[in-house]
Design goal:
Blueprint lengths: L5 E2 L20 H13 L4 E6 L4 E2 L2 E2 L6 H6 L5 E5 L8 H21 L2 E5 L22 H4 L6 H15 L12 E4 L18 H18 L5 E5 L8 H4 L11 E5 L12 H18 L2 E7 L9 H11 L7 E4 L20 H9 L3 E2 L4 E2 L4
Parallel strand pairs: 1-13, 2-5, 2-11, 2-12, 5-6, 6-7, 7-8, 8-9, 9-10, 10-11
Antiparallel strand pairs: 3-4
């Protein structure tokens, strides 16, 4: 049983002395989440899992279920969802997806958890989906920026997202805050928005337009905006190469599978160095920091949670709001990143769960106040 339930009845950082969010009109609940995440990151880290409550290893759509809860008794503190289904589909499908997603986000809010949304959306100017496919995909960032041939189509996609953002209301009639993480892993070439397919200037223009259009024109005030490249940097200057500016980003993060055991390769010193760059920049710039994606597929290392992940996270006194591991596929026997009952790392995951440093959903109280 965990012994560090947190009663966040008082925000430790006053509104006036703390960092400013990019949306000065953010809802009270969004501001509270932002400040509470900053406060918690001084001594703790929230654990997150992508698609945790939507489906898991061998199941889908079960009420009140997650593989993490089946092992520990608690859902993850952070639930990852995806806005991929809100474009490039028939209207009826989008409407159904919105409702499924809305229920997921609102249910997490009612339980006291946190939602973060990735955005694997299909190339709006060509086929190929969200991945870059040679001879199929086109370099679309230059086309969706203001003045581009597909800019109006992009505006329509953002209107759909804004409509969804306005639909996620709890029983208290408050809008649910969401950590929105668009264009992640942009320093790789595997997505159509990747570095090899767009200029620095076009990437930054699209980012700034995205934030300003959602915030200022469509009046979305329940987003926290997260910037997260992959791990292809070794210095702060390299990390910030496509950074749109402090006035356009609330949270800085990174995705890193490569240094944490992927293909049997470990370089924890490099992984720690990069996380430290992210954490140090956040502290300097008055931003939140997070380890926005990581994990070890199939978790063949039975002590990965404590000996690899936790040891790295607890080094150097970094201040990271959360760490999120990737999804557990429903049908694949090998595509999973969190344990389920009987999986080889489950016992070690319980040690990770019971460590006072890590927070799960049951540990959070009043995070929106």
């Amino acid at each position: 049983m965990k012994n560090h339930l947190l009663f966040l009845s008082v925000v430790l950082f006053s509104w006036t002395t703390c960092m400013a969010q990019v949306d000065k009109n953010a809802t009270r609940e969004t501001k509270a989440l932002y400040q509470n995440l900053k406060s918690l990151s001084q001594k703790h880290i929230l654990f997150g899992h992508q698609h945790a409550t939507e489906y898991g290893h061998g199941w889908s759509g079960d009420a009140e279920r997650s593989d993490v809860k089946s092992v520990t008794g608690s859902h993850p503190a952070v639930i990852g969802v995806d806005f991929s289904g809100l474009s490039d589909r028939p209207e009826e499908e989008i409407a159904k997806m919105k409702e499924v997603l809305r229920k997921n986000v609102v249910d997490t809010y009612h339980r006291g958890g946190v939602t973060t949304a990735a955005w694997h959306f299909s190339n709006p100017a060509s086929g190929g989906g969200f991945y870059w496919k040679d001879s199929v995909s086109v370099a679309a960032m230059a086309l969706i920026r203001p003045g581009g041939s597909h800019h109006e189509k992009y505006r329509q996609i953002l209107r759909t997202i804004a409509d969804f953002a306005g639909s996620v209301k709890g029983r208290d009639n408050k809008l649910v805050p969401i950590i929105f993480r668009p264009y992640h892993e942009f320093d790789g070439d595997w997505f159509w928005w990747g570095k090899g397919h767009t200029s620095r200037e076009d990437f930054i223009d699209v980012w700034r337009f995205t934030v300003s259009y959602l915030r200022d024109s469509l009046h979305v005030h329940n987003f926290i905006y997260a910037f997260s490249p992959d791990c292809k940097f070794n210095t702060e200057a390299e990390y910030l190469e496509r950074f749109p500016g402090n006035e356009w980003v609330d949270m800085v993060g990174m995705d890193d599978y490569a240094d944490f055991g992927r293909d049997g390769k470990y370089n924890l010193e490099a992984g720690l160095k990069k996380l430290k760059i992210v954490s140090d920049y956040a502290e300097k710039a008055g931003k939140l920091a997070a380890f926005t994606e990581t994990g070890l597929e199939t978790i063949p290392n039975p002590t990965w949670w404590t000996e690899t992940l936790l040891k790295t996270l607890r080094a150097e006194k970094m201040k990271l709001a959360y760490v999120l591991v990737w999804r557990n596929d429903t049908r694949s026997a090998t595509h999973f990143y969190a344990p389920f009952p009987g999986q080889g790392s489950a016992a070690d995951f319980m040690k990770f769960y019971n460590d006072p440093y890590t927070l799960f959903e049951k540990d959070l109280k009043n995070i929106y106040k």
